[in-house]
Amino acid sequence: MSTAIAQKQGFGAILWDYLTTVDHKKIAHLYLFGGGFFFIIGGLEAMIIRIQLIKPANDFVSAGFYNELLTMHGTTMIFFAAMPFIFALMNAVVPLQIGARDVAFPFLNALGFWLFLAGGLILNASWLLGGAPDAGWTAYAPLSTTSPGHGVDFYVLGLQISGAGTLIGGINFLVTIVNMRAPGMTYMRMPLFTWTIFVTSALILFAFPALTVGLFLMMFDRLFGSAFFNPDMGGNTIIWEHLFWIFGHPEVYILILPAFGVFSEVIPTFSKKRLFGYTAMVFATVLIGFLGFMVWAHHMFTVGLGPAANAIFAVATMAIAVPTGVKIFNWLFTMWGGSIRVTTAMLWALGFIPTFTLGGMTGVMLASAVADYQYQDSYFVVAHFHYVIVGGVIFGIFASLHYWWPKMFGKMLNEKLGKLTFWTFFIGFHLTFFIQHFLGLMGMPRRTWTYLPGQGLDNGNLISTIGAFLMAFGVIVFFYNVVYTAIKGEKVSNDPWDGRTLEWTIASPPPHYNFKQIPLVRGLDALWVEKMEGNKNLMPSEPLDDIHMPNSSILPFVMSLGLFIASFGFIYQVDDLRWLIVLIGGMLITFGAMFVRSVKDDHGHHIHKEDLEKGDGL
Amino acid sequence: MKGWMGKFRVLFILGSTALVLSGCGLENLTALDPKGYGAQVSLDLIILSIVIMVFVFLVVMVIYTFVFFRFRQKKGQEDVIPKQVEGNKVLEVIWTVIPIILLLILAVPTVTATFDLAEGQPEGSDLLNVNVTGNQYWWNFSYDDLDVQTSQDLYIPTGERVYIDMKSSDVIHSFWLPSISGKMDVNPENENTMFIEAQEEGVYWGKCAELCGPSHSLMDFRVVAVSPDEFDQWVTDMKNVDPEAEPETASAQEGKQLFSDKGCISCHALGSSPTAIGPNLTSFGSRTKFAGILDPTKENLVDWIMDPESIKPGNKMTGNYKEVTEEEASKIADYLLQLEPSEITPEDAESE
Amino acid sequence: MSDHTLNPEKMPHNPEKATLEGKNKFLAFWFFLGGETVLFASLFGTYLALKGSTNGGPAAEEIFELELVFVMTMLLLTSSLTSVYAMYHMKNNNFGKMQLWLGVTVLLGIGFLSFEIYEFTNYITNEDFTFRTSAFGSAFYTLVGFHGGHVTFGLLWIITLMIRNAKRGLNLYNAPKFYIASLYWHFIDVVWVFIFTVVYLMGKVG
Amino acid sequence: MVSNSNSSSEYNRKKNKEEMKQQLITFTLMIVFTLIAFSMVIFEFDKLYVIPVLLILAVVQVIFQLYYFMHMKNKDHEMPAFMFYGGLTVATITILTLSVITWW
């Protein structure tokens, strides 16, 4: 199953190729398009929210529907847009950056994607099946446990299944980075993007189990009558809040660290300078990851945990500003003395620095517990987390897409359209969210369906909605750019940006075995090191030989399909026990596929030396 | 923290007057114009953190602007290869230590204020205690020591701390009084306590800040802060209410009958009997708003009685009483509107 | 990979880590156990927060029977030792004895599981203590049940491995599989040590 | 060559046996600890004293499992130990939180 075969055959073959692929580069494509699809859905939800809030006492959508929209917007954007984008980047870049032929577990890599997709489809199926979840993306009990209909059940199962996929992906990348680096690539020679993915994967490993348990408890409460979050039977709703945020806060760093990694690649490349303070950057990344687990209760300052807990978590939270500040200054000093080229990717990085600094500022402000008594659950918080998640993560994703698109697809995204996207999105973003800081302080609570006239909130909301339209325009331009590039884009060479790391040493897009011979790494910014010594490429670390590659398999898809089917059984067995048949059937499909996988030996296949010498690959 | 905060405060007041003039929110709703102790403490910290953070932001932006214009690649420099600098230990130490110091400047008053605002009621004090119950989508206020019940409008005396014990009867709510005190969650399984202290008379807006269902955005309440004397008067009046008192007009008398015939009375209490399923209506005629959000006119009240669902989706009144005609609703409205047991009304607070 | 590379004449000292696949599996499984630790911690935390919330139903000290728990503990501890024996024979490349000791491990595991099922049925039928009785009940059955689920999965896993490889013996392809299955089994024992301490013994102490 | 590899495998066998002996001792200790734990509860020692001892016994048993049965004491276990302790750290604060700052 290689691209060569797929190109010769029709749509069916390509589809089959993608359904069965275990190639990390194709899985990256799948994550990218899966994430893009959900990003559009989440974006539409955001636009409806902003239209509803364009004027006071508006009734463009009903109150109940509005709650579904805000829940789905948050859930979709975090779990089904930002996360898959991050995974797309991990898959597309990390094995190339460390000089590996694939990830440690290609089969599990595919499984991770299909579980994510199954989860996303289950969640969004709720729109068509009697109503989406409506308890907010945080799903605080008992609002979520008592929410009528099946909306929250879809939330629970969708997140549970996609969460399993994420966990698998996290472990996979940890092992890949530990075990599969090319000879000579010590930890302190790893590109910073790989470092951030390493830390992110560790955060996934330790954060997601808490969510898994939380979701199980909620599922038991809603579907099987247990009493975890039912105060009438001795349950305790704060357990959910803790479990959710023990996961939820690291999740924010899971999203932002890869974005930091992207900027740490983009800024050096387009300043033609090595990253300033590499060691400090690595240390800061690890420290942010570690502190990320110590601060979750700052989401709960108003819960009533008592002044001691609030004070401890306030101070711990402030501490995170220090490593983050270190990063900002190191980026600035990477540019200092450099030769800055303003490409679209760099433009996103340049836009990111002030935007994220503002987001960080409000972050520190929020950490001050008593001040947070005013901000908490107000539009100030909405503004803050959009500054860090859009201004950090989404800017990072846009930067990385413009930067790595040529490597992923062999074609350069149009720079002019890219810059148009940047400017409309950037201006629209600040227009939308800056004013929301003030709306919050002026007494506008978060998740509010409408507001009354005469409360001084009218103009701010109008401006905010106008900004949202500008952002939407920018996104549309980007999608147009993608289509335009696919049709008309120019093919690019191995190294269109004058890059510094290993991924730029091989063809764009790379052959499916990535490296004909695994390179020998002789320093940080391995390619740059060779360039400075006048070498065109890296020295190989091994003689040309047969390459062992994994076989493709449909089983990951089948396993996920089984869980997809079983979820509907879980959800509807409450209404009618006959749905248990669907539940059991789905589980049988999944376990059956797992059984087949474990009893059938799969030793992979070899690409022969002779074929490699022909330069063909297959 | 008060002393040296003073200087910042002067600066801020100058700045904020300009902001308020240019429309920085509604008075008695915005957190930027505090009228109570808690809100004032919060605002002090907000200002302090803004000052520190704006300083940091300016430093970043100055370097950023300089770097961008100075080191942008110029024509003919495409082949220039800049010096590859590894890093600089002194700089790293500087931008680690200075932020730590700045954060300590913020952390110390934060911790102090956290403990300050969490201070419980002193043992044996006779300060006012109010039990607040959050319900989908209305608030009940019970003055247990005084044997007084009210809903939606919370009366407090100015200039003293009022301790409120909050609990929810259903899902989590959050009690937010931006111009007086910030907010605290109202949980179903434990009681949270905070104090509020209004420094001047007025009618202050409160909101529910935790998503609690479809009408979450409509779960407003108000705090009516009156002078201590007026408050005592109000308590006396409320205590002496006779829930059975006959209204004066014929229409209202019929309304009273309808109030029990149509089943209203099974949920709504009058007088000081404890919380029922719906809001206590003892002083309904003096309410600042009907249903938390409607201007207090008879028309609005009739609309509400006829079809509460269209005004507050998901409320618990819909469908729980017998159908009323518009005429009947009007009579019930007449009855409710004359329920004004106290001379102390929100107008007393506002006219000050 | 050809059969020759998977079945070398001399097994290396650590057959589970002799190939890259083996090394990857070994590492990934340890990482997975790191995540499992958080999973069980969340369940333990929930249990500790809710163990007093009996909602009028039975409390911990009223129902737990230590004799039963003691027998279960002995079974599981011993099964941990027998799986160590199995790995000992794997390293000595003695496939037959490895299978034998794995078999003993499975039997002990089944014994443990049967006692647990008996315990649960006893609570449900005789003590009126179910998953839905109280928050304590929910937390108890979820924590202990999750562990039981892990035992069940571990048993199925080891049995599958034993049957699948019965005829072809040990090689470098399946050695890592046996090894991580035994790691999993030890981890189950680790969790049980905390369950019998925190849930049963401390529950009995009150 | 043959004799060489034979002697190394002989050496390994010996080493394995040595390790097995340690594991048997570990097992015996674990059984003893379990007995102590159960009897402390059955003979109703003072609560204040029993709970910390129970927890210490459990921790020691787990260390035995991890280091001897699961070989964490051996070399090549740095990464596993690092990640496992990472998990353990998060696990500890999770349990601490849920048992301390949840009400009550």
TrEMBL record, chain A:
NCBIfam families: CtaD_CoxA (TIGR02891). It is an enzyme of class 7 (translocase). This is Cytochrome c oxidase subunit 1. GO terms for biological process: aerobic respiration; electron transport coupled proton transport; respiratory electron transport chain. It is a multi-pass membrane protein. PROSITE patterns: COX1 (PS50855), COX1_CUB (PS00077). GO terms for cellular component: plasma membrane. Belongs to the heme-copper respiratory oxidase family. The lineage of its organism: Bacteria, Bacillati, Bacillota, Bacilli, Bacillales. The chain crosses the membrane at residues 30-54, 74-94, 106-129, 154-180, 192-219, 239-263, 275-296, 308-333, 345-371, 383-405, 417-442, 462-483, 554-573, 579-599.
UniProtKB/TrEMBL annotation, chain B:
Pfam families: COX2 (PF00116), COX2_TM (PF02790), Cytochrom_C (PF00034). It is found in: Cell membrane; Membrane. Residues 250-340 form the Cytochrome c domain. Binds a copper A center. Its cofactor is Cu cation. Its main location: membrane. It comes from the Bacteria. GO terms for cellular component: plasma membrane. It is a multi-pass membrane protein. Belongs to the cytochrome c oxidase subunit 2 family. This is Cytochrome c oxidase subunit 2.
TrEMBL record, chain C:
The keyword Transmembrane applies. One of its GO terms (molecular function) is cytochrome-c oxidase activity. It comes from the Bacteria. One of its GO terms (biological process) is aerobic electron transport chain. Keywords: Cell membrane, Membrane, Transmembrane, Transmembrane helix. It is a multi-pass membrane protein. The chain crosses the membrane at residues 27-48, 68-88, 100-118, 138-163, 183-203. Residues 1-204 form the Heme-copper oxidase subunit III family profile domain. Gene3D superfamilies: Cytochrome c oxidase, subunit III, four-helix bundle. GO terms for cellular component: plasma membrane. It is found in: Cell membrane. Signal peptide: none annotated. Belongs to the cytochrome c oxidase subunit 3 family. PANTHER family: CYTOCHROME C OXIDASE SUBUNIT 3 (PTHR11403:SF9), CYTOCHROME C OXIDASE SUBUNIT III (PTHR11403). This is Cytochrome (Ubi)quinol oxidase subunit III. It comes from Terrihalobacillus insolitus.
From TrEMBL, chain D:
One of its GO terms (cellular component) is plasma membrane. The keyword Transferase does not apply. The keyword Membrane applies. Pfam families: COX4_pro (PF03626). Its main location: membrane. The chain crosses the membrane at residues 24-43, 49-70, 82-103. It comes from the Bacteria. Signal peptide: none annotated. It is found in: Cell membrane. It is a multi-pass membrane protein. Keywords: Cell membrane, Membrane, Transmembrane, Transmembrane helix. NCBIfam families: CoxD_Bacillus. This is Cytochrome c oxidase subunit IVB.
